[in-house]
Write a structure and sequence with these properties.
The structure is a homodimer.
Chain A lengths: L2 E6 L7 H16 L3 E6 L5 H12 L5 H25 L4 E4 L6 E3 L8 E4 L2 H8 L3 E5 L2 E3 L5 E3 L4 H12 L4 E6 L20 E3 H9 L7 H9 L4 E5 L8 E4 L13 E5 L2 E10 L4 H11 L4 E6 L6 E9 L3 H15 L3 E5 L2 E7 L9 H11 L6 E5 L2 E7 L3 H11 L8
Parallel strand pairs in A: 1-2, 1-9, 2-6, 3-6, 9-11, 10-12
Antiparallel strand pairs in A: 4-5, 7-8, 11-12, 13-18, 14-16, 14-17, 15-16, 18-20, 19-20
Helix pairs in contact in A: 1-3, 2-3, 5-7, 6-7, 8-9, 10-11
Chain lengths: 409, 409
């Protein structure tokens, strides 16, 4: 007998029929003797409907009031799922984020969880209840309703699992696990039985949209056993996210190929190669609330160097505007930039102990005539920036080059 | 400078455009220097949509979960109205029933307000904010979301006005006040500038659907100055509900003609005329949660009497079933009943000091050949039960007989 936290996304609860199916799945886990806490998102489309309604009133809705509004989406789902559970004979109680006291900071529309009061949930579980909690939302110290930002229901699930010391947090979604790459691009892509937390983090931040990155960080921090499963398959083991390399398992060197077409690259040319120059360039970018992903600076020549970084395409123009005075100020030679790029990454904890991953990657791309514009590496990934139009080709040839289509895992 | 509580119903906030109009009206009151607290209902149609969704899951939705669900309707409106107020330059903050702590008992779907914590609202008002509160909802002592039942937003408005000791509670609706009778039946019906609390109570319970009866009781109990106004007219004084007869005002004897086609009548024939018989009949009816409206028992003959009462038509069959064993048990002669009836009432505090109201009423109906099946009187009203088909005719001739179409008020 275990304590399981299950999270169901908007598609999984997108209609009364699907909500009834979720109830049946929960009932199967209860029948096996497990305690179950369920976290749900708003029914698919509902959050967008509410935001559109808000925008009919205010082009840029007041963040506090927007949170009051969109948090109703999950509130409807918790009630419906509880009804569905009660209807098939289970005991169930729903709670909003505020009711189980998911305390957050006061950063409306992108709040962070500070603490969770699990007492009430424990009492309900002890009484044999299924506890149904609204994902994505909380309250701040003043009792204002907050939301965690898009995808925040995953974070709620993991945070509840951490607070309750649950045996497993199961994230049900419309895919049955984490794949070696996007099967729409590479039909031979395989589902991974396990993936390490670090790999998942790289896969998520690099554009595999299975789990919200913050929830993975949270799971890592609190050592929550996390599993991604499909809510449309009756039985399946999905992909387990682990926190240590399993020494016993014959693990492939590379776990997957991630890619991302959301970024733009900016290079400040011919900046003085002196201490503090990185801060002079990225300080104003950070002040403008623009997140930077890759940062590349090579050795300089004649006291000058080129400084490159990538930002989200939505921030591209804003970043260029911010940099104009910086260029003047630092006496840089100018700016070179472009938003028709893709970032492709080879990810795997195995590469720590295997040389040659980067060279295999570069050779493979070179054989297809794909030019590499930027390179960035970490212990468990190698990322390159290439022309956007080569994305699919690059992903396919790399998937094959690392034998991801056949590796037994 | 006054403190005004304004309540807007579902039709008044039924679209983004209408919500913007409400914001403009609130702004006009603010511009005159008043503090304003606004209570809103769910957008028209929303509560029904949510209930239908719940019924897709459970034919008889769990009451606790139904409250969690339907309370989202008002939550959406408070956010939208606050946005609309902020958009036109006002400071505004929305609160759910739970957030301003409208504490209720735990009778889900028909809870009663126990207390309101007005501290937070006072602080906001002091800071120049318009406070926007969700009607119809509260929380119980355990933090569960409750609702007050249909029309409960009126009650919320009055309860907030009482808690804040507001100068006036304004109920905005789709009619511009209380009329001498339904203008759809009598085009000459006039809007009343004032109506006493007792009259309003009779008018409301007798079928004038302007205000929820519980809110009127609440207003009477806490001496809240209550005004009914149209949200579709820019300036209008509506109808003020007063708590004393205004001696200075030349007041008509009769204020209005109310009517109701929602009831059914039941007569238990030939029951023994002895102490306790009323309880023997109505006890089981009350135990079955059936509300009784009129009760009539005349003097008996030969130790037997007839006992009549009316119930809501929805409870008609249930009441008849409940009575079957009662008839056997009391050795009554049988039951006579019908649901094709109407109750028509002449209401006015003036009749306390004027004889002849009842006889005028009976004569007027007799002249039209309308048979009176039951009669019930109070200090300020005379009600008769007649055949349903004569409803409009009876209302028209009574309106004319009491000169309601021309009385200067």
């Amino acid at each position: 007998m275990a304590l399981i936290v299950q999270k169901y996304g908007g598609t999984s609860v997108g209609s009364p029929e699907r909500i009834k199916n979720v109830a049946k799945r929960v009932a199967r886990w209860k029948a096996r003797g497990h305690d179950v806490v369920v976290v749900v998102s708003a029914m698919s489309g509902e959050t967008n409907r509410l935001i559109a309604l808000a925008k009919d009133i205010q082009a840029h809705p007041d963040p506090r009031e927007l949170d009051v509004m969109v948090s109703t989406g999950e509130q409807v789902t918790i009630a419906l799922l509880s009804m569905a559970l009660i209807e098939i004979g289970l005991k169930a109680r729903s709670y909003t984020g505020g009711q189980v006291k998911i305390l957050t900071d006061n950063a409306h529309t992108k709040a962070r969880i500070v603490s969770i009061d699990e007492e009430r949930m424990r009492a309900d579980l002890k009484a044999g209840c299924v506890v149904v909690v609204a994902g994505f939302q909380g309250i701040d110290a003043d009792g204002n309703i907050t939301t965690l930002g898009r995808g925040g229901s995953d974070t709620t699930g993991v945070a509840l699992a951490a607070a309750l010391k649950a045996d497993e947090c199961q994230i049900y979604t419309d895919v049955d696990g984490v794949y070696t790459t996007d099967p729409r691009i590479v039909p031979e892509a395989r589902r991974l039985k396990t993936i390490t937390f670090e790999e998942m983090l790289e896969m998520a931040s690099l554009g595999s949209k299975v789990l919200q990155i913050r929830s993975v960080e949270f799971a890592g921090k609190y050592k929550v056993r996390l599993r991604v499963l499909s809510s449309f398959e009756d039985e399946g083991e999905g992909t387990l996210i682990t926190f240590e390399e399993d020494k016993d398992m014959e693990k492939a060197v590379i776990s997957g190929i991630a890619f991302n077409r959301d970024e733009a690259k900016i290079t400040v040319l011919g900046v003085p190669d002196r201490p503090g120059i990185a801060y002079q360039i990225l300080g104003p970018i950070g002040d403008a609330n623009i997140d930077v992903d890759m940062i590349v600076q090579n050795v300089g020549h004649d006291g000058l160097t080129d400084f490159s970084f990538t930002v989200h395409r939505n921030d591209y123009q804003k970043a260029l505007n911010v940099l104009k005075p910086v260029v003047t100020h630092t006496k840089a030679r100018g700016i070179q930039s472009g938003d028709k790029i893709a970032k492709v990454s080879v990810v795997g904890v195995g590469m720590r102990s295997h040389a040659g991953i980067a060279s295999t990657m570069f050779r493979t791309l070179a054989e297809e005539g794909i030019n590499i514009e930027m390179i960035s590496t970490s212990e468990i990934k190698v990322s390159v920036v290439i022309d956007e139009k080569y994305t699919e080709l690059a992903v396919r040839v790399l998937h094959k080059a690392f034998a991801l289509d056949q590796a037994a895992q």
